[in-house]
Amino acid sequence: MQGLCYRLPLMKTDGLKEVRVFAPATVANVACGYDVLGFAIDEPGDEVVARLSDEPGLRITKITGDDGKLPLEAEKNTAGVAALDLLKHLGMLDLGIEMEIHKKMPFGSGLGSSAASAVAGAYAVNKLIGEPLTKKQLLPFAMTGEASADGAWHADNVGPCLLGGIVFIRDNQELDIAQLPVPKNLWAAVVHPDIEILTKVARGILPTEIPLANVTQQIGNLGGLICGLIQEDYGMISRSVHDVIAEPRRQKLIPEFYQAKRGAMSAGALGFSISGAGPSVFGLCEGEESARKVGAAISSAFSKVELGNQLYVSKINQTGVRVVR
Hints:
Elements: E1 18-28, E2 37-52, E3 58-64, H1 78-90, E4 97-102, H2 113-128, H3 139-150, H4 158-163, E5 166-171, E6 176-180, E7 186-193, H5 199-204, H6 212-231, H7 234-240, H8 247-250, H9 257-266, E8 271-274, E9 281-286, H10 288-303, E10 309-315, E11 322-324
Parallel strand pairs: 3-4
Antiparallel strand pairs: 1-2, 1-11, 2-4, 2-5, 5-6, 7-9, 7-10, 8-9
Helix pairs in contact: 1-2, 1-3, 2-3, 6-7, 9-10
């Protein structure tokens, strides 16, 4: 893959016997950047514990928070697939490693649950064996893990989860990515309503052909958003956070979507849209106070129809996956 070529490093496994890592939730697409833009938030997220074992090979010994939905077989689990792909690349498949996975975000949420597990799996194992690869070099292995869950190959969740910040993907196949500047007072209010939307369903309702006028407008919005981030121009950011392709079709999958959007914008959001494939939604805001008002307005719109929901208010997480104690 272009831009990700590197020599096989020398590995060491002495010293560290166990590591626990946290991989954060992410907001993909960011309205106008379908499959090419995403950012990380502080919470929720997934945790993975990796420890050395005397028994050769990678084994997943425990999964919590999944209601029995996820397989313990490493080769069938996103975290396991990512870790195995890394170990195969390094010629260390016989190394004994035990892994625990602690799911702390809902499935089908539009918050990058599969990506978080894959990132955490690859990062934890890399850390355990002496950190032979950089975060960016772990990208293809984490991508392999996420792709094992949904069959898609796009880094708008994996990229920001791994690296933190706001990530732009020029080409998903080549994994040619860049981190964009983050305005110091940019916050997000993210709300997850208690429904599940499968990514394949959300993708299936999108058109195969798009009018040229819509494409031109979407490109302008994406360019405007990038310019707004670089220049810390909140007005430009606000004018650019608009999706004319996916949102008009996907909104029908989310109850009270437009009521939530009206509430968010009336409360002062810079922009509002669907996080990934949904059902989570987000509002970008200038400042924490604004983000909390916007989050409360969004949550209220869902609560009025007795739809349970969870609110997360966060600055843009610029760390990504990290070791926790």
